Amino acid sequence: xxxxxxxxxxxxxxxxxxxxxxxxxxxxxxxxxxxxxxxxxxxxxxxxxxxxxxxxxxxxxxxxxxxxxxxxxxxxxxxxxxxxxxxxxxxxxxxxxxxxxxxxxxxxxxxxxxxxxxxxxxxxxxxxxxxxxxxxxxxxxxxxxxxxxxxxxxxxxxxxxxxxxxxxxxxxxxxxxxxxxxxxxxxxxxxxxxxxxxxxxxxxxxxxxxxxxxxxxxxxxxxxxxxxxxxxxxxxxxxxxxxxxxxxxxxxxxxxxxxxxxxxxxxxxxxxxxxxxxxxxxxxxxxxxxxxxxxxxxxxxxx
Length: 303
What we know:
eight-stranded antiparallel sheet, elongated, 8 strands, about 25% strand, 8 helices, alpha+beta, disordered C terminus
């Protein structure tokens, strides 16, 4: 079993046990309050239900992390920190408030804490062995918007990388959020293109930066009446840097949401989808660049 698959298995088990425990506490708070606390009160019942709800939220979040094929060491460490907090809170309850717990409650808290500690240790050790994705992604809050980037090295010349990146119709073949790209007019610094989303939505883009063989950029016409997304500004930059016999390419997208709700959703819900979109784009592009770099050499060898 690969390290990544093992990490996903641990996280799935963590999510499942948290979900089962949370559901039980949420549905039967009175029963568990009586089992755990020496003198159960309505406050204990409410607290038990709240802990159950918190565990369910945690379980959903961990389950989503486990499904992420671009799972990182940071993801594992963050889950482990939450597990560590549970263990520390349990130890505090056992040491400082033992009189508030029944005998069953004391042992139950101890056993659960030991299990959670096991998850935390396993996740942390696995994080040390988890290889990072070859495509390096980042998403940073800048002012009212975000700067989203991905960097990838391709085993191809800068010329080949540039040729692939400036194949505008071919962009749709590697980007999950596109079904088609049409060049409306011009080329190089005067290029205008129209992009189509997977559901038929479309928007226009105009080149606003161009240095042949190095970098180009597009500004999205977010002010158009039919622009389909809740952004007031979107700008993209695609660049190539030679690295000896290879080349590194970078894609930077700057977006400014129209409102605070969209910005919040991008951070809380959209982050993983955006990361998957950008890394998939970079990985597929690198595969095409490397394939096109090999094909001329293969043709020469065949001749």
